[in-house]
Every structure is written in structure tokens, then in C-alpha cells.
Amino acid sequence: MSTRRFAVWRGAGTEGGLVEYDVETEEGMVVLDALREIQRWQAEDLAIRWNCKAAKCGSCSAEVNGKPCLMCKTRLDELPEGEVIRVEPMRAFPVIRDLVTDVSWNYEVNKRIPPFTPAPDTEWLIAQEDVDRMSEFRKCIECFLCQDVCHVLRDHDMKSNYFGPRFMVRIAALEMHPLDRADRVELLAGQAGIGLCNITKCCTEVCPEGIHITDNAIIPLKERVVDRYYDPLPMLGRKLAGRRRKDGPV
Amino acid sequence: MEDTHDVLVVGAGLAGMRAAIEAYDLGADVAVVSKLHPTRSHSGAAEGGINAALGNASEDSPELHGYDTVKGSDYLGDQDAIEILCEEGPGDVFQLERWGAGFSRTADGRIAQRPFGAAGAPRTAYAADITGHVLIQVLYEQLVKRGIKVYEEFFAWKLVEDGGRCVGVICWDLLHGGVKAFPAKTVILATGGPGRLYVGTTNAYACTGDGMGMALRAGAALKDMEMMQFHPTTLSPSGILITEGCRGEGAYLLNKDGERFMKRYAPNALELASRDVISRAEQVEIDEGRGLDGNVFLDLRHLGAERIVERLHGTRELALTFAHVDPIFEPIPIRPGAHYHMGGVETDVWARTTLDRLYAAGEVACVSVHGANRLGGNALMETITYGRRAGRHAAETALEADDAALPESVVRDAERELQALLDRSEGERPWRIRDELAETMHEKFGVFRREEQMTEQGEIVRSLRERYAHVILEDKGNVFNNDLTQALELGFLLELAECMVVSGLARKESRGAHARPYDFPERDDENFLHHTIVHWHDGGPVLSTKPVRFTKWEPQVRTY
Predict the structure, then answer these.
(1) Spatial separation of the C-alpha atoms in residues A98 and B270, rounded to whole Å
(2) Domain residue ranges in chain A
(3) Class in CATH terms, B232-337
(4) What is the mean pLDDT of residues A101-123?
(5) Letter string b/e over residues A132-159, b meaning 16 or more CB atoms within 10 A of that residue's CB
(6) pLDDT for res B4
């Protein structure tokens, strides 16, 4: 048992600030446990979103000592001893109250992505290696920590130009489903703004599911965009193939 | 007051979303109310898989699946409902595949199936070890694709009954505050289970039996409330679930002496016996001193690093993060934890409850397909099959029905009631009551039950209910008032606890998950082969019984 000091952001919208609380801590406690202690004894109106406590539901996203993380998965003994532990809401999203943010922009973006679209006469046989390729992306729990940390969304506030890493992962999962027939490349190049990602990989660093967002989702999708719009050889090939098809076999 | 919907679904987990999709596809005007964003629902925590007699791994049939389920239920399951589940299951699984669910595959590209507890053939389809999570995403995509309206972060609190029919739901708007009324021609409850009644549970915080509590208060019957399944492999103290899939892949259960103790309790099935059998075995080992710090061990080491990383990746992550153990090198300490409630709101095979126009599907319901004990993999199947059936019947009923009117006076009463709770200036904090409830339920109404302990627990619950009448809220605000919703959840939990305890006392036998080894150790088909029914009347539970529906299978001695 030892006492740790927490500085938790309290407030609504842009009005508010850090309030300090001391908590008796035990071995194995995570940040969420400490906040719930604060909620019980010291700040009964502290607003927090949480549910599963097992890093599966994606509800408890916050910034601890400036780093976006899941509160249920961040052990106190991982944080520097003797220092105040700062707990703040995700800064890339408007604050509803205390640590609860309005992440609904993400749900709106999601609506613009064409869903899984199989061909009508699909034969439903899939190789395990094809399932494996997209299974990494399916692990995403929509905690939005990657969206929170991405400087394009967070610092440059370009939510109207870039869908963000989470949705690059979603598009990759759909694009890499072997039986999906929808084309999302135009979307990626245009509205989804994949060109705005400059591969700083902050998203990969904060992902609690360990998804290699940049390397496995974003870069392959960038390559598809480049193939379609910027690579001269395939473009030439398509032009020639197009002419051949119209004139009949040579 | 919101506009009247044809079908209002309460709860946006797998059952709720599947019901909404079906109702929409039949042309009904559907809306979903959920106290969480849909993908946060606890269905997403399910790991191991979904059962259906596809026959991809070996010879199998819906009849064999049916027999396993009936036997697993310790013959308390309604066999017509079970037959429907097993017949329709395969079609539902193929539908999920066509919606893009990334199931693991066989070598020839079909849906893979693995062995699971108490199954006569490997029939559990799975997506690595995050099956529930994958299915939640698939259904959410279908929900969004259809543009189905979801009222997110609305806490459903009261069902409104008028003239013998359910006419809608009254909710608290968690984001903005205030009471919101949703009139509807039909209402489908898909609110999950009450695992949070127990201090050691795999369930998330939101699993507080809201739908069951609302149905009870509205006059609907609950069934088999005493049947709470304790999952054999949960981490201590968090209760985090370690999937049965580990045992499906070949993991062993060991006591502190390194003995594979299941050979003494279930010599044929060993670690793949039924969950109630295993939880009891573990509890005996622990009680008789062969455990360590209240745990026994799940050993994966012999499976090898490659297989663990490929097939049980999620399990390894959980063990590393929450138990500080790497299963490649060390066994995982585990113990039984409250996991799934077989009981719930009484329904027929079309998900109709005893209140006209009210439906229930998923864990909140008791059809009953699981009887006294549920097989692993059958819960996910139930959410899909019975969610779909609920959606279908509710839509068809609503499309032929007249408008539903929700009396304004009921809304005003609800507002007054909540305001009174908010205004109270003296009283006890709800969390104290909730903690006492969870600890005492665990101690006195857990894996093993005894007459004196259950009787004591009944008294404890009644005194907690009296204290609950004077709870005070510290958060009086409108925006994101968790304090209020948690206090309302506690109200449900207390009433459900009382129903469970009286049902447990009345069942003077051991059957499935209801184990009374000290006073009634045997199953008594002559006197207790029936469902326990509870109604709420004058502030307390009233018991009755209902026969089990038999089709093909006669009760037999149940061994594994």
C-alpha cells in the first residue's frame, strides 16, 4: 500500500482544469481502479466511461501523463514513482465532461465507408492465410487512441480532410477480405485523405491491440492509391488494355 | 415523447442488433436504445466461438447438437426450443459469413470448427479467439448500412404497461440528462445478464440485469432464476475470462500438486466436460486445500509457443497484462467466476414474453435453450437465432398493429420519481450496498449452495433493499450522471437477487449449475423436473412452476 497523487482533469467543454486527489494504492492496480476509488470517496460526480475492465470494449480511453492509453490496462507501477499522475481526456475530441469525450465524429466517418460487398455469385471458400491477413485489423476495438494521437487530426484539426488511422485500418480490413468486391481506392485518395498521413507512426505506438497500423494498413493502401493514380506503367498498361478490349482480340 | 416506433430494441449487443436488422428487413420502423455505444456491448468480450452443426470438422447433425445441448442442460432445457436452435443455427452462421465475418477456415477453405465443452463433435466455429468481437463488428456494419436509428447512451429504466400490453420504454438521457419516453408497438429486450451480482464475475460493469428487472416490474414472468453459470477459467481478482477455447485446443487443468484432477471428476471428457461439472471440481479442489491462494491452474505450455501465438493470441495478451504470467512458460492461475445467467425473462420459441408485445432475446431471455447449464458456444448461437426470431415476430406483429399510446401521466410520474431520488439530501451511498450485495452473493449463493446460507442470503438481500430505499446521489447534474444510472442499476440487481435466492431455496435438488451437495446432492426428476417461475407482486417474489417441454430425449443420468 502506498499513496499516489493524481491530477485529474475536471470540467466541461473548454472550461476546467486539473484537480488533485491522493489515493491509497495496492499492488496490481491500474489507473481505472484508482479513478474509481476517487469516484467513491472524493469526487462522486467524476464522469468516466468504462465497461469491461479487460481492454476489450475500448471505452476507457484517456491521456495519462500525456500519453493516450486505455485506463484499464495502464498499471500504476508502470508510471514513474513519486510523481503526480496526470489523467486527462482525449484532447483530439470535444470534452463532454471530465474524462468523457464526444467521439461521435468517428461514427459519422464510418458511415461514409462502403461496407463489405461480396459478389452475388460468390463461392464461400476462403484460405486461412487470407483470413490471417485481415485478422490483425479486425482486432481493433475502436478505442480511438490512434485518432487522438494523430497529429493531422489532433494538432492540425483536419477532420474534414482525413479519416484517420482507425479508418485506414477499417478500409484495409475490407479491402483485404478476399471476397469483397467494392472499390475504396477513390475514397482513399479523395475524402479519406490518405495522402495526409506522413508515416510518423504515432498511431502504431499507442494502439492497445498492437496493430501495425502504419506498416500493415496505411502503407499498403497508399500503394494501391499510387498504383491507380500515380504509377505510369500500370496506367499505360490499363490504357493499352482498354484499347485492345474495345477493338477485339489482336 | 419520441415518435412511435414499430419495434423498439433495448440493448445493442448481438441479440439486439440481430433483432433490429431482421425487423428492418421485414419493413418495420425500428430503433435501438442502448446505454452504451453498440460495439462496447459485452457480447464483444465473447471469445471461444459459435456452435452450429455445419459438419465441417467431422460427422455432425442438428440432432446430435440437440442431444448435447439437452444433456448439457441437465434435462431442464425445453427441447422444442433447442431443436429450433440446432436446426436454424447453421443457416444463421452462413448468413454471418456472407456479411463478412472472418471465421477461421479449414484447409479446404470452409468454416473451421473446433471442439468445445460437452460437445459430441467439434462444432464451434470461431474467429481466432475474438469471435464475439468480430461478430459485433459485422452486425454493427449491417446496422449502419441500413441506417437503423440508435439512441446511444440512453439508460432504459421502465417498461410501460397499459391495458395488458407493453406500450414503450422510459429512459434517462445519459448525455444531456432528463427523461425520454419511447412509445412502441413492440419492444424487444436484449439487455444481457446480471453477472455484476457477484464480486468475481467475467461480466462488464454494465451487466446489471436491467431488462430482467424492468420486465419483472412490468409484470412479466422470469424463469429459472437460480441458474447462474460459473465459468471455470477466470482470473483472480478481476474476474477476466480465459476462454474455453484454450481447453478446446488441449490445455490442462492442474491443482497445486500438478495433478490433472479432472480425471477424478469426469474421466471421459476431462477438461472438456460441461462447465458446471468443471467449476464444481475446481471448487472442491480449492476447498480441500489443493489450490493455491484460492486458484487452480490452466496449463498451456505443452501446446507450444507457435500454436499459442497463432490460435490463442488474445488469451496470452490477457494473461500477460492482467495476471503477469506468460502461458508459454507458466500455468495461468484461475478460479470459477459468475459468467452467464441461464435464467431470465420467460419466453416462447418466438421470443414472446408473458407480457403482450414484449419480447426478449439473448442472455436476458430464458426460452429455455440452456436449462440448468449452458454449453460453451451456444450463447452466441442463441443471440443470433433467437435475436432474429424476436425481430421477425415483433416486426410482423407491429406491422399489423394499431398505434401504441404511452400515457403522458406515466412519464410525469417517472420524472417525479427520479427528481425525488436526485433531491434526496441524506442517506446511504449506493456503492456500499452494491459491494455488500456482490460479496454476500458470491459467498452464500455461489458454486455450492446450502439451505442455511441461502436463507441467510435472502434476509441479507431484503435488508439491503430496505437500505436501498434511502440511497442518496452525490451527483445531481444532468450531464453524464453515472451516479444516477448506477443507483438505478442497483435497484434492478437487488430485486433480481431476491428472485434468485427464493428460486434456489425452492429447488431442493442438485441440477446443472444449481449444486446443493450438502443437503440435496442428487437430481430429483420426480419432483423437480420443472422450471421455476417468478413474478413480482406486492414488493416481493411469488413462485410457481412450469413443465419442461419434451420432444425426443428422455432424461438420463448425466456423466462426462
Answers:
(1) 50
(2) 2-99, 104-233
(3) alpha beta
(4) 95
(5) ebbbbbbbbbbbbbbbbbbebbbeeeeb
(6) 94
CATH no. for A2-99: 3.10.20.30
Task: Select from B327, B353, B388 the least CA-distant residue to B22.
Answer: B388
Asked if the Cβ–Cβ distance from A51 to B431 is below 8 Å, we say no
A141's CB contacts (< 8 A; 6+ apart) are A55, A56, A57, A58, A208, A209, B39, B44, B133
Residues 6+ apart with CB under 8 A from B63: B86, B552
A130-139, A222-231, A237-246, B170-179: range with lowest mean pLDDT:
A237-246
Residue A18 to residue A13: CA distance in whole angstroms: 14
Q: Which of A40, A111, A128 sits opposite B105 (nearest CB)?
A: A128
The structural domains of chain B, with segments of one domain joined by +, span: 5-227+342-400, 232-337, 408-534
CATH homologous superfamily of A104-233 equals Alpha-helical ferredoxin (1.10.1060.10)
Q: How far is it, in rounded angstroms, from Cα A153 to Cα A196?
A: 10
pTM as predicted: 0.94
- pLDDT of A250 above 80: no
Q: Distance, in angstroms, between A77 CA and closest chain B CA?
A: 12
Helices (H) and strands (E) in chain B, counts: 16, 19
For B408-534, CATH number? 1.20.58.100
Nearest chain A Cα to B40, which residue? Answer: A57
CB atoms within 10 A of CB B506: 16
Cell 477485339, residue located: A248
Three-class SS state of B202: coil
Fold for the domain defined by B5-227+342-400: FAD/NAD(P)-binding domain (3.50.50)
User: What is the C-alpha separation between B87 and B79, in angstroms, rounded?
Assistant: 12
Rounded Cα–Cα distance for residues A125 and B105 (Å): 8
Please identify which residue in the block is written with the cell numbers 479467439: B129
Chain A window 168-187: which residues touch B at a Cβ cutoff of 8 Å? Answer: 174, 177, 180
Point out the residues of B that are catalytic. Answer: 275
Whether B432 and B498 have beta carbons less than 8 Å apart is answered as no
Burial call B424-446: b when 16+ CB within 10 Å, e when fewer: eeeeebbbebbebbbebbbebbb
Residues contacting residue A177 through CB under 8 Å, at least 6 positions apart: A116, A130, A134, B100, B102
